[in-house]
């Protein structure tokens, strides 16, 4: 497991070195929600398998409710990604700029912070939201969902 995590981390670091402009990021996110739309029935079918396993493991009902995907929840995931597409690209944005008395110009510019790790209970919407937000902000992310999925 440790070796696997190390490999994932190395790939994430490499991904962080690749810079994309806002147009490309938005195109990828649009393709992402279109793929979710296109494969909605398959996603729901596979999610039922996760739900059945969770029921067999006697996972608490509230966690199973969060795990379940249906048409309404998929529509919410797609709408969330559409909202992220509309957000202004947060990278390379000049937050402040000033000139020192000696003529040196200093700028405070927003940049990605690096590889982000998220451990969370299995909520399919969180997976899509975090992945989309991190992609939009130029930050690679390593997601670790709960064992019930």
Based on CA atoms alone, the radius of gyration comes out at 19 Å
Name the helicity range.
55-70%
Note poorly predicted spans. none
Q: Order of helices and strands, N to C?
A: HHHHHEEEHE
General shape:
elongated
Got a strand count? 4
Strand composition percent:
5-15%
Kindly report the average pLDDT value.
Answer: 91
Provide a count of the helices: 6
Gap from first CA to last CA: 18 Å
Order of neighbouring strands in the sheet with most strands: 1-2
Q: Mind describing the biggest β-sheet?
A: 2 strands, antiparallel
- SS-derived structural category: alpha+beta
Attribute tags:
single chain; 149 residues; alpha+beta; two-stranded antiparallel ribbon; two-stranded parallel sheet; 6 helices; 57% helix; 13% strand
List strands and helices in order, with pairings.
Layout: H1 2-16, H2 22-38, H3 40-56, H4 61-67, H5 71-86, E1 94-99, E2 105-109, E3 116-119, H6 124-136, E4 141-144
Parallel strand pairs: 3-4
Antiparallel strand pairs: 1-2
Structure, described:
The chain is 57% helix and 13% strand. It has helices at residues 2-16, 22-38, 40-56, 61-67, 71-86, 124-136, and strands spanning 94-99, 105-109, 116-119, 141-144. The protein has a two-stranded antiparallel ribbon with strand order 1-2. It has a two-stranded parallel ribbon with strand order 3-4. With 149 residues, it is of the alpha+beta class. The longest helix has 17 residues, at 22-38. The mean pLDDT is 91. It is built from six helices and four strands, in the order αααααβββαβ. β3 (116-119), α6 (124-136) and β4 form a beta-alpha-beta unit.
């Amino acid at each position: 497991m440790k070796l696997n995590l190390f490999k994932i981390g190395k790939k994430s670091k490499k991904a962080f070195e690749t810079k994309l402009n806002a147009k490309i990021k938005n195109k990828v996110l649009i393709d992402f929600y279109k793929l979710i739309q296109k494969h909605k029935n398959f996603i729901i079918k596979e999610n039922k398998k996760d739900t059945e396993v969770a029921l067999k493991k006697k996972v608490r009902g509230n966690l199973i409710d969060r795990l379940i995907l249906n048409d309404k929840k998929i529509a919410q995931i797609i709408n969330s990604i559409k909202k992220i597409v509309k957000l202004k690209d947060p990278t390379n944005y000049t937050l402040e700029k000033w000139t020192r008395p000696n003529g040196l110009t200093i700028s405070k510019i927003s940049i990605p912070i690096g590889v982000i790790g998220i451990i969370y209970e299995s909520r399919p919407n969180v997976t899509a939201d975090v992945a989309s937000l991190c992609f939009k902000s130029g930050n690679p992310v390593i997601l670790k969902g709960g064992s019930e999925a």
